[in-house]
Design brief:
alpha+beta, Glutaredoxin, Immunoglobulin-like, 10-stranded mixed sheet, metal ion binding, Cytochrome oxidase Cu insertion factor (SCO1/SenC/PrrC family), LpqE-like, metal-binding, Thioredoxin-like_sf
Length: 339
């Protein structure tokens, strides 16, 4: 079954079509050619399109805030299901092929996110197994049907969940296009079904290069170095602190988030004086101007929530996400609790 939403897209000024397809049927959606001036083969999305603000569950069973975790990266977003016989495996194979054609630096700045339209069957471990057949870096997300439906609607992708009493090898109707977002979360491109790995890679390279290029009023690229990263041995089972130093020799940037496989989540906090006493407050982002920003005791610091396996003498991987510089991975030294 194919449901056209061309009239909706025309009203939004978007060239092309988003198709809803029940896997197993014949489907070759026609996408109008981009304007000759476009540097892309794919259809361009309006910048008003934004990556969905939704928190779902990753393949590790932990909460995954889609928009927050996408900051600083080019994100390919697709809605499908693991029992799909054709559209989904074909699209994931194309995406995996495209990723293999990118340079290591380009790959580090790009992610593929697969959101299931069939959460009843697609548990985290099922998603992990399915996506691992294509590329182990692919992000798989599941969650409540209502949250997935809202995310799809926000992405302008149509999905129709199966009836509550569906049994056996049932099919799920879902959009067949890949939505591409820039590092700031704004819409960039739409890859139609069977777009192909080579064309995906070409357009992704172009998009990444254009994001790098200095435009009007853009002072250039950020050049971030991370040093003196350390995490304290937990003195309580639920939380411990982390510290580091950021040095920016380029354009101003913003630290948008931190994560670690050694913690359920990582939050950024700062100590401030208020009403005659020091208090701690969480911050969502940290400006990183040219110069040095220190995460240290009594000021900005990291809070690793629900830490696991943090032992003195070991190291803890930290993943820092910047709006300009993208993702930077560091190994933090584990130090005694009182240091």
């Amino acid at each position: 079954m194919r449901t056209s939403v061309r009239s909706l897209l025309a009203g939004l000024g978007l060239v092309g079509a988003l198709a809803a397809t029940a896997c197993g049927g014949q489907q070759r959606p026609a996408v109008e050619a981009a304007a000759p001036a476009s540097p892309y083969k794919a259809t361009r999305l309006p910048a008003s399109y934004k990556i969905p603000q939704v928190t779902l569950t990753g393949t590790d069973g932990k909460p995954h805030a889609l928009a927050e975790r996408a900051r600083g990266k080019v994100t390919l977003l697709f809605f499908g299901f693991t029992h799909c016989p054709d559209i989904c495996p074909t699209t994931m194979a194309d995406a995996a092929g495209a990723m293999s054609l990118l340079s290591p630096r380009e790959r580090a700045r790009t992610q593929v996110v697969f959101v299931t339209a069939d959460p009843r069957r697609d548990r985290p471990e099922v998603l992990k197994d399915f996506l691992g057949r294509f590329d182990t870096s692919f992000v798989g997300l599941t969650g409540p049907t209502k949250d997935i439906q809202k995310a799809a609607a926000d992405a302008k992708v149509s999905i129709t969940p199966p009836p509550a009493d569906a049994r056996g090898n049932y099919q799920v109707s879902h959009g067949s296009n890949v939505m591409v977002y820039g590092p700031d979360g704004s819409g960039k491109l739409m890859f139609p079904y069977q777009f192909g790995s080579a064309d995906m890679a070409r357009d992704l390279r172009t998009l990444l290069a254009r994001e790098d290029a200095a435009g009007p009023g853009d002072p250039g690229k950020a050049e971030i170095a991370v040093s003196d990263a350390r995490v304290r041995v937990p003195s309580a089972p639920d939380v411990t602190a982390g510290y580091l130093t950021l040095t920016n020799d380029g354009a101003p940037d913003t630290l948008t988030g931190v994560s670690s496989p050694a913690a359920g989540s990582v939050e950024m906090h700062r100590m401030e004086m208020g009403h005659g006493s020091m208090r701690m407050e969480q911050v969502k982002t940290v400006p990183v101007p040219r110069g040095t920003v220190r995460f240290e005791k009594g000021g900005l610091h990291l809070m690793l929530m629900k830490p696991e396996g943090i032992r003195e003498g070991r190291t803890v991987p930290l993943v820092l996400r910047f709006a300009r510089a993208g993702e930077i991975r560091v190994e933090a030294t584990v130090v005694p609790a009182g240091s």
